[in-house]
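Please, structure for the following, as tokens.
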Amino acid sequence: MSHNEEEQELPDGSAAPMPAPPPPDQRPDRLDVPAEAAGERLDAFVAAHLPWKSRCWFQHRIKDGDIRINGKFVRPSETLRAGDEVTFNWPADKSFVLQPENIDLDILAEEPEFLVLNKPSDMVVHPAKGNWTGTLVQGLLANATEEFKEMIDDEMRPGIVHRLDKDTSGALVIAKTVDALAALRHAFKEHLVSKTYLTVIIGALPQLRGEIRTNIGRHGTDRKKMSVLDHAGKPAETHYEVIATTVHASLLRVRILTGRTHQIRVHMAHLRHPVLGDAIYGGRRQEMPFMPDRQMLHAWKLTFPHPRTGERVEFTAPPPPDFLDCLARYGLTLPAA
């Protein structure tokens, strides 16, 4: 299949566009799983019955909780059983066209194949429900319109290889060509990318170094949260080192070997020492002497194979003022780069 997920291959090998989606009032609210579909993956079943969107598109809707089985949050790979009820919460129709916006970008490095940015903590990476404008992607289009315009896809993520949460700051690598996009995605998939974060947590951990290995998956009832799961989810591995500790908080250097959603935040909460300022995972305790406006999590270093040469390159994103202010208030010292 081509890079365009909205194309299908014809018998002669050429690509044909997928059919246009029906009007909202003609889209099903549910599909009942027949006996002959038992054992199929949810994403494959939905894409086969509703061929006007790609399987990739449906996978994102499942992960967001817009498609469920018997009312429960599930994974795209969930196996169906005869009689299951697949329900849909269709996102609102939007006549949305991705447009460049003049947004200041903190570019740490730029080469013909990629650029590395220091993302501010109040910026969403790409357009999505509730954040259609002011995203990093719109800033990229203004920065190099032709380069990124060629990579616009159905998910409106031209050049995007990985993401950071809106309230997490730090280093992001962005592909500037289709070949670089493929190379960097391969590097992430094969765990050839090293990601090191700085985070301030509540309290003090019992040991200075540690490794956390659990499964992480979507929370059973709260669609905004992820959680540690015993018998579901995907493996997640986090290594941490305590850099400094005071009475109320600790500064950690954290390296993640996997890239699960909210991984560091979930794992720190699992240890009962949530990331300071994290409103979702318990990091806004009232007894703390100072409470920042967002979670104190910063993507500090990013190392990856150069998409053209294969040589490993490393980039460091200086922490923003609010992170440094938090360290100062708690008497924590930033490690040398």
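The helical segments are 42-49, 55-63, 136-143, 145-149, 178-189, 263-270, 321-329. Residues 198 and 253 are 5 Å apart (CA to CA).
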